[in-house]
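Notebook p. 47: complex prediction with nicotinamide-adenine-dinucleotide.
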Amino acid sequence: MRRVSIFGATGSIGQSAIDLIAREPDKYQVVALTGGRNIAQLARDARALRAEVAVTAFPEYLGDLQAALAGSGIEATAGEAALIEAADRPADWILSAIVGAAGLAPGLRALQQGTTLALANKESLVAAGPLLMAEARKYGATILPVDSEHSAIFQALVGEDIAKVERIIITASGGAFRDWPLEKLATASLKQAQTHPNWDMGQRITIDSASMFNKALEVIETNEYFDIRPDQIEVIVHPQSMVHALVGFVDGGLMAHVGPADMRHAIGYALHWPERGHVPVERLDLAKLGKLEFRAPDEVRWPALRLAREVIEAGGLTGATFNAAKEVALDAFIGGQIGFMHMAEVVEEVLNRTSSDNRLDNAVITLDMVRKTDHLARQTAKDIIRQRQA
Ligand code: NAD
Ligand code: MG
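Predicted complex, structure tokens below:
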């Protein structure tokens, strides 16, 4: 039996992973499941999968969790330290699917036990990519991408020499406002932004898809995972979300990864790696699909894409600032304090104000530095939002 843990088990990715694991109960021993405020879901899954421990990130929910698990023999714990403790429990496979920078510390700790970390929490890679990669090397851990594009690239590179890669192309659906006239974007509402044309995902990543901040994070993520130059990474708009990424080689060959918009493929690939196992996603009927479209992305419509290039160029702690500022701007959009197009303006201003502090050699970055940078960026973003409202 393989020991597995799921961080962010109650979320969209976590639930898809549970769907896969629950189909083969004899193969997996579930160690830890973690969640946030959805205690009923967390307790239900912990009972169904006979987890050793269930963790809520928020201490004020510990009583509810204990009550929901009463008589089950499953441990209930809460808070940041409990998440770290859960990441310390020996497991063969750990899924990092907490949303946002909160996923960084548990992910880092998981790597330190030399495990296989299936990484959906792209924010941790954006905020602290060099640190995560260095820890993985140091402890002999493996990081497997759980993002449709990066899983696709990873699969296209099996058996290949990265030195023979000319370019990597990641696709973007274009999100909710792909076809809106540019001048209308400023009026985009929360309800409109959180409806994705193709994927069923958590609220935050859905809005990030409409603004292309998700793709911006993914360009940075590509730069962290694969040993190529930033100018070799391209983004293309592909409304059908069937081709997830393409890898172009020096001989002109272009390997495309095609599949349905269902994250269980990328999760399943990471779960069964290095082998391939059965994954119950829809099998594509290409004749029914008819055609696939591709268009160049428009950086006026999606300024986040330009910012991503600037973040890579600046390096150091700039990614941590970018991610934190983006999280605050997103909160402000969700809370109705700023408009849709203001999110990129806020993030850009935070980057401008902090640029001199962020330039740093990647090799000297520590978790503490990332935390401080994250904190400062959040404060700066909040100040900017407050000033705008005044
Ligand atoms: P979600 O909002 O559906 O779920 C997030 C999970 O994180 C929940 O279990 C929640 O309880 C937990 N959580 C929230 N705040 C927390 C905190 N402060 N501390 C600890 N736990 C906390 O999110 P999601 O859509 O499942 O996305 C999870 C991660 O996977 C994100 O990093 C996202 O970018 C990435 N991802 C998601 C998809 C997708 O299809 N949903 C695709 C690719 C990558
Ligand atoms: Mg993706």
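Notes: The chain is about 45% helix and 15% strand. The pocket of magnesium ion (ligand 2) is lined by residues 147-149, 218 (CB under 6 Å).
Next step: compare against the earlier run before touching the bench.
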